[in-house]
Amino acid sequence: MIAYIATIFVSALLVFSIQPMLGKALLPWFGGGPSVWSACLLFFQLALLLGYVWAHLLDRYLAPKKQATVHIIALVLSLVFMVLLWISWPAPIIPSGAWKPHGTALPVLHILLILTVSAGLPYVLLSSTSSLLQT
């Protein structure tokens, strides 16, 4: 019982600490306007919704043991991807300087692309962990 509570707590802590960390890292790249925060909010709300959809689909179509297996495999793949990013970036979810924008055309799409590559899969999986454990 304690393991479930600890896992849910750590998952929620990571989900809600990634948002301001990435937003703060991207803010100076795009001039610090409110559109950066709005784009980050859009991304994280959509990723949270995808996490809930992932948890719903696993719960609806797979038995509990298969749910755990599929979710753990996805978490391991996400971890491998983050390690590969860590090799070329300063941190696993903070992009390198090569991802900085060069112009001002469509900054929202650029922000969404950076967030998808850097934190997309881990965020979706972390946001679905507590829902899966609670079912």
For the sheet with most strands, the description reads: none
Number of helices: 4
Proportion of residues in extended strands: under 5%
Low-confidence stretches: none
Overall shape: elongated
Keywords for this entry:
135 residues, mainly alpha
Reconstruct the topology from this structure.
Layout: H1 2-26, H2 34-61, H3 64-88, H4 107-134
Write up what this structure looks like.
The chain is mainly α and 135 residues long. It has four helices and no strands. The chain has helices at 2-26, 34-61, 64-88, 107-134.
Summed up:
The protein has 135 residues and is mainly α.
